[in-house]
Amino acid sequence: DADPFEWVTFSTNLRVNRIWENSPYTEGGGVSATTRAIHEIPPIVPVKWPDGTWANSSQTEGTSMGFEDGANPVSSLLAPDFLHDRTHLLGNAYLEFHITPHLDLRTQVGLNNRMHKYRNYEPTYLHDFGYPEGEAQRSNETNTFWQNENYLSYDQQFGAHHIKATAGASWQQHVNDYSWFNARQFSTDFY
Length: 191
Prior knowledge:
Blueprint: E1 2-5, E2 8-22, H1 34-40, H2 73-78, E3 81-100, E4 103-122, E5 135-158, E6 161-184
Antiparallel strand pairs: 1-2, 2-3, 3-4, 4-5, 5-6
């Protein structure tokens, strides 16, 4: 709170939170979920083959082993890009004007704004993700809520009597904007 003049009071509160991360797909019911692959891939399957390519449980040709087709959990954590950029802005401010000793006008504004950007790329060689053609996805979401309240307050005591009255008006809006794009069939894994 601040009182720059005796006839006005001012206060503000602002919080900004930003998270930028590479967040791989770790949970879910599909065979590409890392937590499931950790439990299901046989321990005899190497992380990589001698030529440097990622191993997976379907590469058992020439053997009598028949495992469920699934990605190597190490490759599913390290190879794809799941880049998430999230910003959250939360703020509130008010001005209170002391018009007379008994009459105040208060106006306040509140804002809640969330911005999410996702950029994902699943390479052509990664089994159960982008294999065999690669896949890129991008989405943007902005969610904004604002509210404005204005009210006039009168408070006065006349001997044994007390009068207190308030009149006000309020406006608010909520807007959500979302877009999602997807592309496949990449000739290289440059992303």
